[in-house]
Design brief:
The protein has helices at residues 83-96, 101-121, 131-147, 152-161, 165-174, 180-195, and strands at 2-3, 5-10, 17-20, 23-25, 32-33, 39-40, 51-52, 59-60, 69-74. The chain has 204 residues and is of the alpha+beta class. A three-stranded antiparallel β-sheet has the order 3-2-9, with no helix packed on it. The chain is globular, with a radius of gyration of 18 Å.
Length: 204
């Protein structure tokens, strides 16, 4: 991995500049994929789809801005959001209005994944899940089933993760697998459905 001069973002609310990582080169060695579509490649990290302004605390989409590169500074900052920040971003950006369904999908998936990060993905699963977080997780899962999931396997997985085991099972029983990857993934999901397990899992 080789870091280049940073990308410079501008807060659309207060004008504050923020430097985030820009890669000159990277690779996917050691990459991980989880069942909620979170991907992490340590040698090819991605800047967060949503950024928080360090000055005014507002959230915005870097994708709405022209790409501007610094001519002198480098940064390792990805601008990743915590679960609380992802929740705040969803609330604010929903009020502000999305320019496309893709933007809303990005924010809802971000909340879905940060929920899993905090409560379910990693080794320490001892934290008590707040009821308001769980309710929003379910709401986002249902939205993603209807507006984001590109195939029946992913729809079933979103249903499984929010605890809708019967719906997940029904979808997989009727689904036609388009390739071996989806067939193997569907089998892993089915095994967890039969055990009543809703936790996100690592695919590879």
């Amino acid at each position: 991995m080789m870091i280049g001069f940073s990308r410079v973002l501008t807060c659309p609310f207060c004008g504050t500049k923020k430097d985030v990582m820009s890669l000159m080169s990277g690779n996917t060695f050691g990459a991980r994929l989880w069942s909620d579509k979170k991907e992490w490649a340590p040698m090819c990290p991605e800047v967060s789809w949503v950024q928080k302004c360090p000055q005014c605390g507002k959230y915005y989409f870097p994708s709405r801005q022209e790409y501007v590169r610094s001519d002198s500074t480098m940064s390792s900052d990805l601008g990743g959001l915590s679960l609380q920040e992802a929740k705040e971003a969803l609330e604010q950006l929903t009020k502000d209005g999305f320019e496309s369904m893709k933007e809303e999908a990005m924010v809802r998936l971000l909340f879905f994944q940060t929920y899993n990060d905090k409560y379910l993905r990693y080794e320490d699963k001892s934290q008590e899940i707040l009821s308001e977080d769980r309710a929003l997780f379910v709401e986002c899962g249902l939205w993603l089933v209807d507006h984001y999931a590109e195939d029946e396997v992913l729809k079933a997985e979103f249903y499984r993760e929010i605890g809708e085991m019967d719906k997940a099972r029904s979808i997989l029983e009727a689904a036609e697998m388009k390739d071996d990857f989806h067939k193997e993934l569907a089998e892993k999901i089915k095994e967890r459905i039969e055990k009543g397990e809703s936790q996100v899992f690592q695919v590879y």
